[in-house]
Amino acid sequence: MRLPNAILFCAVWTGAAMAQDVISARSGLIHYFEGVVTMDGTELAKKPGEFSSIKEGSQLRTELGRAEVLLTPGVFVRLAENSAVRMVRNELLNTKLELTAGSVLVEVGEVEKNQSLSMTVGTAVLNFDHRGLFRVSFDPAELKVHDGSAVVAYNDQSVTIREGKMTPLTGVIVASKFDKEDDDAFYRWATRRSGYISTANLSAAKRVYDRGNSFGYSNWVYNPYFGMFTYIPFNGIYRSPFGYSYYSPGRIGAVYYRPVYTQAPANGGWGSGSMSDAGRGMANMGGRSMGGSYSGGGSVMAAPPMSSAPAAPAAAGRSGGGGGAPSGRSGGSGR
Fold first, then answer.
1. H or E stretch including 254?
2. With the C-alpha atoms ordered 325, 311, 188, 91, is the resulting torsion angle positive or negative?
3. Pairing assessment for the beta strands 116-121 and 94-101 based on DSSP bridges
4. Is the dihedral of CA 41, 46, 47, 53 positive or negative?
5. pLDDT digit string (tens) for 164-222?
6. What are phi and psi of 196, to 5 degrees?
7. Are residues 193 and 78 in contact, defined by beta-carbon separation less than 8 angstroms?
């Protein structure tokens, strides 16, 4: 992500705004919620294609519900039941939240050197300057690092807490081990949310490519087919700590376009000989529609017509999260 010292995106949102292709130059979009969720004491109501934002000084609180907030591109904050966060600063280059109740999961997919991304819990300050997944709780005040690392500043201490370690956020900041596999219903809900957004990434990244859009940075992009925003990396593939993949427009060909194989003359089967230029991925497709036969010399195998976007890649190494569809475990507070 490349962040100039100016507004990056094509539309600035204040308060509630209708869905557009790319969201605003501020952190704090309330992307999804379920159950009873309030902002500054007023209960939120769902409206199709309309999203509210947390303004500076405002507080988002869940009661018997959960919520998902989008910060800078690639950074998600998910609130468990009976939790609250206050937006201290919502600038892209300087985003700061305060946890005032309950528990949250912070997923950091991308952060630049010139960015400041932090959360306060009491008098402790958590600085997220690397990719990772972090469980932050208010009472008892503690940090668990499921993936990556974070820096905890408290009084005169500054300690880096790494994957598989936890620390209290009061008294002496000291790292100790915890069982990363010991998840709960909220963690499994967050896993499913990651799967849904990853699924929406596939067709959204292809749409960006097909339109010929050129980003100089990563972005949140609205997918009208799913009715949600998704994360589009500037380049490469982002693999989330939950095991799902988010593709950049330049890499979406790994999903949507099949390689071209030449026919092996010896046995009449499909060999793995040299690939024609037309089959070397999206960069050389030249606007050819999906599902057409690839040309470029020799016998080639036609790519079958593509239907709707494929399901999200299966999560690696964890159970209970599911893919694009729920795993059968309820996302409610009772399970």
1. helix 253-256
2. negative
3. parallel
4. positive
5. 999 999 989 999 999 988 899 999 999 999 999 999 999 999 999 888 876 778 999 99
6. -65, -45
7. yes
Cα dihedral 149, 34, 54, 125 in deg (nearest 10): -30
Alpha carbons 102 and 136: distance in angstroms, whole number: 9
pTM value? Answer: 0.74
Question: pLDDT at position 114, please?
Answer: 87
The domain ranges of the chain are 25-184, 259-303
Q: SS3 for 62-131, per residue?
A: EEEEEEEEECCCCEEEEECCCCEEEEEEEECCEEEEEEEECEEEEEECCCCCCCEEEEEECCEEEECCCC
In this prediction, residue 253 carries a pLDDT of 85
Euclidean distance between CA atoms 222 and 192, whole angstroms: 19
As a whole number of angstroms, the distance between CA 122 and CA 106 comes to 17
Distance CA 38, CA 58 (A): 10
Secondary structure letter of residue 56 according to DSSP: T
DSSP 135-153: EEEETTEEEEEEEEEEEEE
DSSP 3-state of 166: strand
CATH topology of domain 25-184: Jelly Rolls (2.60.120)
Across residues 51-58, what is the average pLDDT?
96
Q: Which positions ≥6 away from 18 have C-beta within 8 Å? A: 49, 50
| Cβ count near 331 (within 10 Å) | 17
pLDDT digits (tens, 9 = 90+) for 237-288: 999 999 999 999 999 988 886 666 666 655 555 444 433 333 333 333 333 3
* H-assigned helices in 164-244: 185-211
Tens digits of residue pLDDT in 65-121 = 999 999 999 999 999 999 999 999 999 999 999 999 999 999 999 988 888 999 999
Q: Where does the pLDDT of residue 131 fall: very low under 50, low under 70, confident under 90, or very high at 90 and above? A: very high
Give the Cα separation of 194 and 312 in Å (integer). Answer: 9
Say what the pLDDT of residue 256 is.
80
